What we know:
Strand content: under 5%
Number of helices: 5
Amino acid sequence: MVEVAPVAVHVPVVKLSPKGTTILASPLLYAMIVPLVLVDICLELYHRIAFPILGIPTVRRKQYIKIDRHLLPYLPAILKVACAYCGYANGLLQYAARIAGETERYFCPIKHQAGVDFHPPPHHRDFTEYGDAAGFRRRWEAGEGSKDQEALSQPGP
Length: 157
């Protein structure tokens, strides 16, 4: 991690001349804060309640959400706000993806069927191959999937 040393000399602030398209899109961009905060609240409730019940280790939020670019002295105030917003929004979505991935690892660690237009997430690397029933059963019985063994003993469709 690179630490930003305090600047002893005056650093000029970057001049900002927003394009018309930026001004037009900004209300749409910043309106997304409402659903993002709602997702954040719901995600955190699920994560902090369900993970301990299921025995899944919790994910460290601060490893994903970092808001620090507003400290850069050369950014004008409006970009400091934008950088804080982007740090929160992108970090939150990465955090949510990690929580969803850990949930998927617990309940259904099976890769999706390969396809030209599908980009598998990185956490699928160690999942059981699609269609490998024996491999899935071995992992499940070894406790690598869900700890709820009752679900495995239920007859399938």
